[in-house]
Design a protein that fits this description.
Four copies of one chain form a homotetramer. By secondary structure, chain A is an alpha/beta fold. Chain A is about 40% helix and about 15% strand. The first copy, chain A, has 14 helices and 17 strands. In chain A, the strands form four sheets. In chain A, strands 4-12-11-10-7-5-6 form a seven-stranded mixed sheet, with helices on both faces. In chain A, strands 1-2-3-15 form a four-stranded mixed sheet. In chain A, strand 16 and strand 17 form a beta hairpin. The longest helix of chain A is centred in the C-terminal third of the chain and has 20 residues. Chain A is globular and about 55 Å long. The interface between C and D is large, with 115 and 114 residues.
Chain lengths: ~425, ~425, ~425, ~425
């Protein structure tokens, strides 16, 4: 196994590879293989980019078929057949059946690029500059998104000036504080020093913040707060959209309609780079090219994205995700939580985290290393990295899921000394 | 032809499609086809993303082969075989033979994301915040890059506060002004109000700024200026790198070594999303994950990117580009420029622009519309969009190139009334 | 009475004159006279600038004597006898007896200028840019101070970008929130998005914020918070310093030592413009002229300032203030509060406010207008201007104080319809 | 002589005192005395604050008379007799006779405070945020003014983020550059990255920048540029207004009418703190109190300010300034400039500078030290402090002026080794 190439030539900014010091070759479903032929169960799922499994055959075959015909691959934002079909499929199978009326905006094919577009739109429309974001959030690493992202490590690395964002404590952070009332006070009090925002931006589950699930009620309250005050609501569904929580949009559980939704990761089906911004028709005052990006017309992503929507609707991925979610919750509650009363479990659908912070935040890193030794890929997240994060492909077979959980349990046991 | 889907559902931010109101289906080399079976000669080249031709067979076949083996598609920044091979090929065939020692950083797969990483690195390393950028530049649309980008249309759309950038007039802008002396003065004068910058960022040809070619001498002077003052030099080679000007890196003609180079577009071979930042080894103080992005590990891009390097080196693309560059220059100088003495021609390699601004900036739009009617795809750029921009794939056959130029000439004639 | 001059030629930015539409001529102690010979009891006290009474004879005579000798009036920051004597008196009679070791910095002669200097010093010393300020605060109207000031009316008027300040809810604002814990969380949580500040700046009583008195305990807790975290504590004692609360420094009641103290208003004795910044010796790393201002060397202010210190120490102004404070509190509690159970009384020493916000914020304006009709000068303050503010000169005679309070009571009765 | 008090207790930020290590006691006209009874000729004039001479008897007597009557001293912005008389006198004797229609705004009594108000007004009125300021300028030390001030020493000391200002090279800085064309280009070029400004702010003579006199033509060109483009023109007349250049307003020589004028220093007559902003009637959309400050109602400054206007009009100060200006120019040209061909002389009226920068910037400090030894007070200014600045009171007697110049000449001779 030759990792020296990376050590010699790749920038030291590389990160995940440090937890998984092997060289991967191929992957299928929930299994990844390395150069030594070892097979790993994948509980990381490309940070949510391969929800429908590595090399999902249905999706991949559509891509290969297209490539075989010399279908145009790159077309900026010109009209193409794959783009038309992606749009129609997304509208007909996802957006309209759920009662939404979003228009689709194609941005540079990264979640952070979609976020940049979303805040431009909100500021343009409202003629206000401030944005409310929640502490604990992660919205991306380009400077506009990073001004929202609450992670100090990432912010400090930029040595930059961030402006026009007010960070609001998430509901789990300040005991006894009603966050909605707090935001209303910031707007109403003529001595708050805080400008009324263009938008409130949020994830429905703060994944990087430590698998912090916002309650349905809180999501509805934010929606009401925004509506009441003429503020736009932006949902960043980059990581927990695309069925991860059991419904295509993660906010469906709350019965709300955000004004703007940002999606990426699994919207590209099998890890093909794609990002979209959905915005209501009434916000559609963009002038041509006010936001753009060369790779917003990656046709293979449209092909894969359309195929993914077909796949997920035909294979009951939402329902299956909910079912497996119960399975994983049950295992974690009954098999791992009892190992130490200070462990905390949070999650829904197929995104879960166990917080070891009350014991010792550093244990999480030991646990994922132990897991890797047992051929299980999972990562840590959250404050001080104290949360062991589990995010398998939604299509993982039950046996593999259980097997992965067993390995995880052993890792916990070894690290906790049980 | 059904464009109503786009009109109904796609955000009004879409732009290029407005100049080319048809629906493209497939493409090969320098030819694009639409749903009606019409064939277009492509002088736009995906804004530089398909330098080696649409569906370049050599490159595409490598991608298909990989897909067939269930090679891992998405792997974040974990180690993989395609990534290793891309790194080795780029180092061995491009970087080392040219005498550079760059480390390779993989960013989110868009040029703008690479720029964001580059300015983070420069500010981190120097502990300074200011950046010098040149008026006329285009570095991207995310907020960090956009703070550099000089296009007012794009800047205004964001309704955002931009900080920590000083824009310097490009050499062609202020008659009688020595731009290097000006920058030196800004640093030396204790009453300039301008902070010493972390970096000077520039393109070697301002493409969006109107195909403005910086002279070899100016590039060297900027390099000297940076070295002399302990400032980093960043070259944005997103649009004119990858052989576009006749050498892999566009700055080779000046014999300089920038501290940081940002590449994207054709680095992904056939339009596969990819962006890299090359930085000298001595700048490699990144801590893990200080910049990241989900799709920085798109394996198909590595496959295509490696294949592209193999292709370009084996097919003398650099030399061919130079040769065709002379051909196009000759045609434009002898066939089009004589149509009106107020036309201005600028370019090198296979990127050229004819500026109609001294006649009437709006003529350029008429010319590209006429060209489209003649099945030629080209776009406008520059101040007030007054420049007709020609950027065919580097691998375009001579006959197609001449045919395209003939069509362009006819468009000029019709619009200029000759 | 000729106010037409003002209406015709003075900028419409003028404000207090709108509540007191007469032309004042002379003033003595707590009494102001107008051109028609009417006498007014002054419960406004030049917003705290004439604590020792209008035309305090002891102080004024010193000024006149100095003027008679052709003593130098304006000397920038050169050494002069009046400056030396002011410094010695302030150190010997105020600073040292209280156990402090402050150095004295002379800034431009306005409170806001002192605040500007204070935040420069804090940012310089700590090499950090962020400042924590409390919602409800007022620190001045120049852009640095205004970035701290929480009043939206003032902030919006500037149409400016404010950076590098985090506004913290004051303890009375968010029920159930421990503000110290909140600030500690902002610093400790690696996902707060809030940078560790250079300083916490605060008033001990938010005067403009509505006569909000911070408890001794809270002041000590902030001091501890700052000490514990290596953050500087800045007290803005511009309005409530100079004995207003019963001790020279308003923070003496809490037994704390701020790192930086800003004083103005009554530090100039009889309304002579003066502002000083006191900072600990260990912060004294200023380089010459890093902050300056032409009128920081106004000798008449030094003369008056010294005389004021002599006066206040020899006339037990601190003790008298406390005594009269009890008198005023007693009257307000027993005579005015009972008029309506929704009235709220806040204050200490000789600064008091009655908040009518729970009835109707606009009543306060009616009350001060009624008071003016009764020849009593007082102003409103606070959120929505809902607080009737009482701030007589500290030297007001008891009978005048009671007479003023009687007039105020009548105004309340008339407006409340009792 | 006891300077130890200052060394022990005054903040190290003190500056001018370091050049003049003595303790001043009294002053009259152009003569300052110290504790040892030494008399100094004053060529510094309190940085322009005592244009009519120290302790000008006419002015001072008015102040004393007022004090004797218990006239109100401090009145915020309430209406008073002294304020009315100041307004009427300024309007009738200065503003109207010159054909202007300015309204008068009273700000905090420092030049920097007036500047802060001026930029607020410009940004409010135009709804634009950017301001153009010239490199070499000095507009004050509070954060809004400091964002304009070009001196790096002062800017760096703040460790602050400055936004919304574009600094333009002054006409003397970039050879061959037409500054008006440059500004027009910044506005017209759709790729300049520079936002159209709310205002251009400038001094007519950059005093701190090194006695750089802008030509009449340039002032008119800036005025035209502003008018043509709907941009406000702000003149900072803090240092060179009040007759310093030979006319009350320094811009009269160019026959222009700025939209906003900021005055301070000698507007207070004998060094009494005062600052005013003059703005055209059509800009008078201030809402009450949108800018304020406690000491904007310092009655002694109104008394002195009115008396100063009476004095200057009755004593032909403008004409006298012009006459003495010729006298000083003649001396410098014939007596000092010949000492070394590298000396540069700049100035007009009674503000002059000799630039030693082409010999050695540090000589200026030696020259002012030598001058102090000869009982002459003058200071240095300009880039690297290389300019010996001469700014005597306008009322200096001819003999004293010549005597001062003789002393200065000797200092030059000694330092230059002649």
């Amino acid at each position: 196994m030759k990792t020296s190439t990376f050590e010699q030539y790749e920038s030291s900014v590389r990160s995940y590879c440090r937890h998984f010091p092997t060289i991967f070759t191929d992957a299928k479903g929930a299994v990844m293989k390395d150069e030594d032929g070892k097979e790993y169960i994948d509980f990381f799922c490309g940070a949510g980019a391969v929800n429908y499994g590595h090399n999902n055959s249905y999706i991949k075959n559509k891509v290969v078929d297209y490539l075989m015909t010399d279908g145009i691959i790159h077309a900026l934002d010109m009209y193409t057949v794959p783009k038309r079909e992606f749009i129609e499929t997304l509208e007909q199978k996802i957006i309209k059946p759920r009662g939404y009326d979003y228009k689709i905006m194609f941005t540079g094919p990264t979640g952070t690029n979609g976020i940049e577009a979303a805040i431009k739109l909100a500021r343009k429309e409202t003629k206000r500059r401030n944005i409310f974001a929640f502490m604990g959030c992660f919205h991306g690493m380009t400077h506009g998104a990073l001004s929202l992202t609450s992670e100090m490590y990432a912010r400090n690395a930029a040595n930059a000036t961030f402006t026009d964002v007010t960070h609001i404590p998430a509901p789990y952070m300040v005991e006894g504080m009603n966050v909605i009332d707090y935001m209303q006070m910031l707007i109403d009090d003529d001595h708050s020093a805080v400008e009324k925002p263009a938008a409130v931006i949020m994830e429905t589950v703060q994944a990087e913040g430590g698998i912090r699930v916002f309650s349905d009620e809180f999501l509805r309250d934010v929606r009401d707060f925004c509506t009441r005050n003429g503020i736009l609501m932006i949902i960043d569904d980059v990581q927990v959209g695309c069925c991860r929580t059991g419904s295509f949009f993660s906010f469906e559980r709350a019965g709300i309609k955000p004004d703007i939704v940002v999606m990426s990761k699994s919207i590209g089906g099998i890890g093909m780079p794609l990002a979209i911004v959905l915005h209501t028709a009434e916000l559609d005052h963009w002038k041509p090219g006010e936001h753009n990006g060369t790779f917003r017309g990656n046709q293979l992503s449209f092909i894969a994205g359309k195929a993914a929507i077909d796949y997920l609707t035909e294979n009951n991925v939402e329902a299956e995700t909910k079912r497996k979610g119960e399975l994983i919750r049950d295992f974690l509650e009954t098999q791992i939580l009892p190992l130490d009363s200070r462990l905390e479990l949070r999650g829904l659908g197929l995104i879960w985290g166990i917080d070891v912070g009350k014991i010792n935040p550093e244990l999480s890193e030991q646990i994922i290393e132990k897991s890797f030794e047992k051929n299980l890929i999972c990562e840590c997240a959250g404050r001080e990295g104290a949360v062991v994060k589990m995010m398998p492909p939604l299509v993982i077979e039950d046996e593999l899921l259980i097997e992965g959980l067993q390995r995880l349990k052993k890792s916990f046991e070894e690290v906790l000394g049980k």
